[in-house]
Amino acid sequence: MSKLGQALKGAAADVFKQLDSKARGMLEGLVNSGKISAEDAVTGLKSMATKATFNRYVSERPRDEEDKQRLADSEAAWQKLQAYGSRMSGALSEVGRKTQEIQEAQQRGDISMDEMNERLKPVQDAFKSEIAATRGAYGRPTDQTAILSDASGFTKNMEGFKSALASMGEDAGFADLYAPDGEAAEQKLQDLGFDRTVFGNAFQAFAETVDIPGIGAKSAAPKTDTAAPTPAPAAESKIATETPAIASKPAAESPSPPDTVSKPASSDPGNAQAALSMLQSALASGASKGGTGVLGAITGNANEGQNTVASGLLEALKAGAGKPQTGNAQTGDTPPA
């Protein structure tokens, strides 16, 4: 039996059975050529097999009242961010309109510079009050994003999956999720060209055969007498020419967990937070004559650059009321935070 065949056991051996001859031959060639050790190859297979099984666990585990409440809280937080962004964008538009009117009056000579500054102060104070009122009504953006950060229940999924693996025993041959040695071994395999273009849906197919406690198996494991590698004729040339499809982790293999709530990336609440931070800084810098923030106009020093910043802030507030992106807990993909 080859070096790889001797090292294969547990989940690594089972997932190997799901690979076609091309993928098996490539792994055999990588090990025989010394490009990767048999131990590292097996560690990488175990790591990817464990992630694929975790994906299935997340997608199919029974949901309880805690899950329902978490999703309800997530939706409420998102609605608050929507309302917060809408109200703040309106307030920013209003302060910009009033500031422009007062500045234009000064430029026409209708009022002096001192009179302009006197008229601008209540506009600035009203804007500060609106920020405070908006926070009072909808909370700070960071309050809502804290709720959204675990919208998919990743912590609960991790804990439940670890418990399920523990009940299956060490003989099942799974790895610790996202363990450093497993991540490093996966990276080695990917750098050598063992990626989704080679293994296809093998890990997803393997995960469907796992009898996960509380969930069961989705399909039967392939009936083979041995997991010994079968070298493919062109394995060595494949190793030399194949390039990894991704630079860090294997491609996602399974559907998004059904309870993962996601919104378009363009609706990142981080934009709203950043915009608010910029507005606060602008208010501070605009408190003295010569300020350069977006509200520098309030000090009588408006220019084209400041107007550009104001427009950018307005767009950021409009776009910044959505949910954050949530990664899918899939094979090799970054899990939901």
Low-confidence stretches: 225-337
Determine the structural class based on helices, strands and strand pairing. mainly alpha
Overall number of domains:
2
Q: How far is the first residue's CA from the last residue's CA?
A: 43 Å
Give the rounded overall mean pLDDT.
73
Beta-strand content bin = under 5%
Order of helices and strands: HHHHHHHHHHHHHH
Number of E strands: 0
Biggest beta sheet summary = none
Structural shape: elongated
Helix content bin: 55-70%
Radius of gyration: 28 Å
Count of alpha/pi helices = 14
Q: Could you name the key traits of this structure?
A:
single chain, mainly alpha, 2 domains, 14 helices, 337 residues
What this model shows, in words?
With 337 residues, this protein is mainly α. It folds into two domains: 3-63 and 152-241, no CATH class; 75-151 and 262-319, no CATH class. It contains 14 helices and no strands. It has helices at residues 3-7, 10-18, 21-32, 38-60, 65-108, 113-138, 141-148, 154-168, 180-191, 196-199, 202-209, 235-241, 269-285, 304-319. α2 packs across α4, α4 (38-60) packs across α9 (180-191) and α5 runs antiparallel to α7. The longest helix has 44 residues, at 65-108. The model is unreliable at 225-337 (pLDDT under 50). Residues 217-235, 244-254 have a biased composition (Low complexity). Residues 214-277, 286-305 are annotated as: Disordered.
